[in-house]
Amino acid sequence: MAEPSLALRGVERRYRTEAGELPVLRGADLDLRAGEIVALVAPSGTGKSTLLHVAGLLEKPDAGQVLVEGRDSGRLGDDDRTALRRGTIGFVYQFHHLLPEFTAEENVVLPQLAASRGRREAEARARELLSAFGLDHRRDHRPGRLSGGEQQRVAIARALANGPKVLLADEPTGNLDVGTADLVFTELLEAVRGRGLAALIATHNPELAARMDRTVTLRDGYVVGG
């Protein structure tokens, strides 16, 4: 069997609070393989966002391993870790977090420039992605002139801009009305499947979860199910 695109091995994450140490992840294990879309469904406060942030190399675990295409991210220095995240992992949030002073196209170009792609190539890639999401006519608009669904489509295009192998999404349609959420989620699934990515998508919506390949949850700091 092919090596997982992303693997968590015994991941622990604790936070220090005024009341003492708060364990959130106690030994989480998870494999994500290319072409597989996994739903993460768990109640609020159980550690979904923490799991996604650790898996996406945005936070370091207190113990355990995060393996990206077989590379142990914990053995990397900060610069190499950042380069691995930028080149391998795409992240979509519930709120789009687009930069308001830049156009839709510029928002998709910027992460590519940060990853050392040339501007001309980055602009061509941005136009290609925005066109795929039906936003060709909106690429010169700033976020304030886009609808909620359009803003999230730009955010998804941005997450795909550097050609990641893994996509992580934290309630990517949770801020949209039901009809728009269904359309955007369909486009997200098509984009992920069409590119053969490994994806972990957190959602509270059981109907959306049912459209994915399998479902996992968090219980007492462990990943279970699926």
UniProtKB/TrEMBL annotation:
<dbReference type="InterPro" id="IPR017871">
    <property type="entry name" value="ABC_transporter-like_CS"/>
</dbReference>
<dbReference type="InterPro" id="IPR017911">
    <property type="entry name" value="MacB-like_ATP-bd"/>
</dbReference>
<dbReference type="InterPro" id="IPR015854">
    <property type="entry name" value="ABC_transpr_LolD-like"/>
</dbReference>
<dbReference type="InterPro" id="IPR003593">
    <property type="entry name" value="AAA+_ATPase"/>
</dbReference>
<keyword id="KW-0067">ATP-binding</keyword>
<dbReference type="GO" id="GO:0044874">
    <property type="term" value="P:lipoprotein localization to outer membrane"/>
</dbReference>
<dbReference type="InterPro" id="IPR027417">
    <property type="entry name" value="P-loop_NTPase"/>
</dbReference>
<keyword id="KW-0449">Lipoprotein</keyword>
<dbReference type="GO" id="GO:0022857">
    <property type="term" value="F:transmembrane transporter activity"/>
</dbReference>
<dbReference type="GO" id="GO:0016887">
    <property type="term" value="F:ATP hydrolysis activity"/>
</dbReference>
<dbReference type="Pfam" id="PF00005">
    <property type="entry name" value="ABC_tran"/>
</dbReference>
<dbReference type="GO" id="GO:0089705">
    <property type="term" value="P:protein localization to outer membrane"/>
</dbReference>
<dbReference type="GO" id="GO:0005524">
    <property type="term" value="F:ATP binding"/>
</dbReference>
<comment type="similarity">
    <text>Belongs to the ABC transporter superfamily.</text>
</comment>
<dbReference type="GO" id="GO:0005886">
    <property type="term" value="C:plasma membrane"/>
</dbReference>
<protein>
    <submittedName>
        <fullName>Lipoprotein-releasing system ATP-binding protein</fullName>
        <ecNumber>3.6.3.-</ecNumber>
    </submittedName>
</protein>
<keyword id="KW-0378">Hydrolase</keyword>
<feature type="domain" description="ABC transporter">
    <location>
        <begin position="6"/>
        <end position="224"/>
    </location>
</feature>
<keyword id="KW-0813">Transport</keyword>
<keyword id="KW-0547">Nucleotide-binding</keyword>
<dbReference type="InterPro" id="IPR003439">
    <property type="entry name" value="ABC_transporter-like_ATP-bd"/>
</dbReference>
